[in-house]
Amino acid sequence: MQQLASYIDYTALRPFLEQQAFQTHLQEARHHAFASVCIPPYLVPQAAEYLAGTSVKVGTVVGFPLGYISLHEKLSELIRLIDDGADELDFVMNISAFKSQQYDYVRTEIQQLTTVAHQARRVVKCILETAYLDEDEVKRACDLCAEARVDFVKTSTGFAPEGAHIRTVYQMRRWLPDTVGVKASGGIRTYEQAMAFLEAGATRIGTSALLTEVHHEVE
């Protein structure tokens, strides 16, 4: 299998992230050739400059972590982040609207955000926050994402009571077409966990805690 590093979105979204820790994060991502970094929006220009010319993509978040800002605000945020240099954009689905069965609103939101990102040739990921959804709701959300042709469906923000579960990722992989990836995130801290999620069908792993494991694998 391809080295684990190439599947990792190396994440630094804690609210108390300091500049020195951020610089170290970028250095580690470049050294290990992770798929991307996933960082706070205001740091995107700095990351884009530092990672220019490398294979590491600059990822960030939109409508994070609760997802219930308006579609207009999400679109404005996404467009600004593209202008700032973001390559990959992880947006939080409007969970409040979804749980209220406002499916047309959610469909429009996912479609419009995906369309704008794709017009700019950017990768877009829809975060479901599966901790708050039952199995039928996860399937319905996956159907909406597939209809909009998002690039990835992501399990979690990492801020909910629970993160990714193997069974959920396995089901998402079954429900989504091959053209849509699955990103497992939230609570993935060991090599064994990461490999289990990949075997279940994940094609990206969001984590901030795998550096030592990846280092040993590379060696």
TrEMBL record:
Subcellular localization: Cytoplasm
InterPro entries: Aldolase_TIM, DeoC, DeoC/FbaB/LacD_aldolase, DeoC_typeI
GO biological process, one term: deoxyribonucleotide catabolic process
Pathway connected to this protein: Carbohydrate degradation; 2-deoxy-D-ribose 1-phosphate degradation; D-glyceraldehyde 3-phosphate and acetaldehyde from 2-deoxy-alpha-D-ribose 1-phosphate: step 2/2
Residues that span the membrane, as ranges: none
Catalyzed reactions: 2-deoxy-D-ribose 5-phosphate = D-glyceraldehyde 3-phosphate + acetaldehyde
GO MF terms held by the record: deoxyribose-phosphate aldolase activity
Keyword annotations from UniProtKB, A to Z: Cytoplasm, Lyase, Schiff base
Gene Ontology CC: cytoplasm
Active site residues per record: 90, 154, 183
Enzyme class (EC, first level): lyase
EC identifiers of the protein: 4.1.2.4
Entry's family note: Belongs to the DeoC/FbaB aldolase family. DeoC type 1 subfamily.
Function statement: Catalyzes a reversible aldol reaction between acetaldehyde and D-glyceraldehyde 3-phosphate to generate 2-deoxy-D-ribose 5-phosphate.
HAMAP family found in the cross-reference section: DeoC_type1
Record's protein name: Deoxyribose-phosphate aldolase
Organism of this sequence: Catalinimonas alkaloidigena
